[in-house]
Amino acid sequence: MSLASTSLSSVPRTMPRDASFRAARRLGAIGISEILKIGATAARLKREGRPVIVLGAGEPDFDTPDHIKAAAEQAIRAGQTKYTVLDGTAELKAAIAGKFSRENGLDYAMDEITAGAGAKQVIHNAFMATLDAGDEVILAAPYWTSYADMVLIADGRPVNVVCREDNGFRLDAADLEAAITPRTRWLLLNSPSNPTGAAYSEAQLRPILQVLKRYPHVWLMTDDIYEHLTYDGLPFVTAVQLEPGLKHRTLTVNGVSKAYAMTGWRLGYGGGPKALIAAMAIVQSQSTTNPASVSQAAAVAALTGPQNFLLARRMAFQRRRDLVVDGLNAIDGISCRRPEGAFYVFANCAGLIGKRTADGTLIDSDSAFCRYLLEQHHVAVVPGSCFGLAPFFRVSYAASEINLITAIERIAAASRMLS
Length: 419
Known about the structure:
Helix 4 packs parallel to helix 5 and helix 4 crosses helix 9. With 419 residues, the chain is of the alpha/beta class. The chain is 38% helix and 13% strand. It has a seven-stranded mixed sheet, with helices on both faces. A four-stranded antiparallel sheet has the order 9-10-13-12. The protein has two domains: 138 residues, Aspartate Aminotransferase, domain 1 (Alpha-Beta Complex); 239 residues, Aspartate Aminotransferase, domain 2, CATH 3.40.640.
């Protein structure tokens, strides 16, 4: 029979006839980040002429330092615009190894280092390379929204362990141990934390590491992206630095986005066991291949060049933190702990839940309160429920002091108008 004479009746009945789009099942529990949605709404209101202050993005308002820009320009002029080695040039890996040794006391060989298009890709690669269906990843809630979705998209199961406000939003060792099962593959720990700004001292981190020592099947992933943003003299510590015996099952993740104000350059890196790094390279080889060549050259300059500007920026963020915390704590119905790091505060708005706006709308959740702030008072913040813990809201103070002062005034006025 010729193809032309084939009738529809001869087509097997099991063949789909609907040409409409069908998304993969794995996306069923995953949506666009709420932070991005809030940003889109804020952008729309701005286009309409509304004076919106956006305190939702995790992006420093400082510029990339000039010496880093100059290194990128030089790389372009030198023709460094081609493909590079899959997971980082030799120059970049040497710079990363030097940073780990100099700042963290960690020794990683070239084949124990990976570089990707942001720390986010490094984490994603690790999950894709290690998780089978049903494998569990323990997340310290509240956590950065992408963590859980990256676990789900890799067919894993996120296990949320609530970090109580009265414990400084830090993971309790007993709660961690209670959450471990035979299916636990990873614990993901972020210090300083997005969204709470909570950071662990050496004494606070050691009990968690002692638990992990008792469960050799559980690997540890540390997201150290806010390493250079700790306040009040708190020294930064990372897990393997304190417990070298965990090095063979730890992935230490970092990047240049936050400390060096290079969010758009998309360059993250990690250090871990050779076998894990090799498996992650397989994943990356079938997605982006190498990180952008020019970004790699810029990251070399960031990691090996002057570091003195970091102190001034850290002190600026600390002043902003205090401004925001003091301002929020002066508002009836809101309380806010003073975080140890990053550039976020995680404010408790439980005292406002159950109240109504002037038009009678019930504030029945932190999400409703954040919508009210954005739509009626033009301040964009992120509800705590997005991060796995309510009723809170996250404020990013990576913004100018004048914008922060104005935003706090608007939040105070919005809260007073509730009844």
